[in-house]
Structures are given as C-alpha cells and as structure tokens.
C-alpha cells in the first residue's frame, strides 16, 4: 500500500498543469491574437503546443487573388515556454476555429485547454466597387467539366 501511494505521488508530480484563461481576439485581416495565462508551475514548461481546427463547413476555392492558396483545416504551432500570447496569421477570413493549447516539458504534456469556437477571423471590407470582374475558380471549373469551350 505504501508503494502504491508513493507511485501516486510520483505520478501527480509528473503531470503538468494546463495553461489557463485562454483568450482569442480578432486582430486584423486573417489574424487572431491568442493569449493565455501560464499555469502555476510555469517554470517547468519548455513549450506550448497550439492547435487551431477550422470549423467552417464551406470550403472556399477562390480568393481575391484567384484560386485558393493552401489553407489547411488544422494549424499547429509550437511556442516558447515563456510565451503567453501569439499572433496567428494567414488564417482564412470569415472563418471560425476551435483553439486548443497545452503545455509541454520533455515528454510530459498537460491536459488541453480549449475554446470550442474562436471569434470570426476578420475580413477586409471592399474599398471600392469591383471593376473588370472575371469568373475564376467555380465558373472555370464548370466550363471545363461540361466542355463548354
């Protein structure tokens, strides 16, 4: 019984506390500011593992610049252990993300702190009415599929 309780104490000491107070603020076009509070045992933390999961159901095939650039459904970042915020950019505007963060120290990982949905990633409002509008992705794809040219 003494050995079992010693094992329990050892396990409890080997578990990292999770980051707290996860906050997400829209920053500017395609950017979110993500911040958190370090856990009480922050001196043990080597890094934080931050993951954003795209929650937007509609896949966008076009952007203002033409065909969509690679924008994965999941963005994973490793941040320094003394960081308590980061600015995540190159996110798809008008999109929502589930955000998860956990502390890491060597092979140990804390439980995950999560926010089920971020605020909407900011988009840019149009500055002027569009000129020289050309069909791009969807129309070109339909024309090609149906041999309309």
From TrEMBL:
CDD domains assigned to the protein according to its UniProt record, in alphabetical order: FN3 (cd00063)
Domain of life: Eukaryota
Chain intervals for the UniProt region annotation (Disordered): 107-127
Coiled-coil features, chain-numbered ranges: none
InterPro entries: FN3_dom (IPR003961), FN3_sf (IPR036116), Ig-like_fold (IPR013783)
Span of domain Fibronectin type-III: 18-127
Name assigned to this protein: Fibronectin type-III domain-containing protein
